[in-house]
Specification:
InterPro entries: FUR (IPR002481), Fur_C (IPR043135), WH-like_DNA-bd_sf (IPR036388), WH_DNA-bd_sf (IPR036390)
Cofactor: Mn(2+); Fe(2+); Zn(2+)
Family: Belongs to the Fur family.
Helix content: 40-55%
Keywords: DNA-binding, Iron, Metal-binding, Repressor, Transcription, Transcription regulation, Zinc
CATH topology of the largest domain: Arc Repressor Mutant, subunit A
Distance between the termini: 45 Å
Low-confidence stretches: none
Radius of gyration: 17 Å
Largest sheet: 3 strands, antiparallel
GO molecular function: DNA-binding transcription factor activity; transcription cis-regulatory region binding; zinc ion binding
CATH superfamily of the largest domain: Winged helix-like DNA-binding domain superfamily/Winged helix DNA-binding domain
Oligomer: single chain
Length: 139
Amino acid sequence: MDIKTELNHHGIKSTRQREAILTILKDSDTPITINQIRESLDAVGEYMDLSTIYRVLDVFEQKNIITKTVPLEPSQSVYDYKRHIHKHHLICTQCGTITIIEGCPLGDYEGKVARDSGYIIDRHQLELYGLCPKCQKSA
């Protein structure tokens, strides 16, 4: 699905800014920070204020196109395009490297929590924090 069609599919008006940001998110294999998004925009000649980028990301998050993860503090939030592949993350507390965890150990537990609580659970998110192998060696 092309970018304009995807935006329209989610009920979002297609603008140059939204198309550029969504393209960057879709092209990234890993979650990226707002500064990385801005650098990528600058590299292709799309200069935007941070406030514009934040507004676009908020819309994408509300429409369930992306996920936002807050690793350690809000200024380090990362954004990831939802490829309808369920995934979790390992986050290095020293260098900020994010590694995708294959598989999900929470499926059965999610069902139990739903039964016990009466909630209808529509999603979950898991981040594990620690030192990556590279930072362990330099520590």
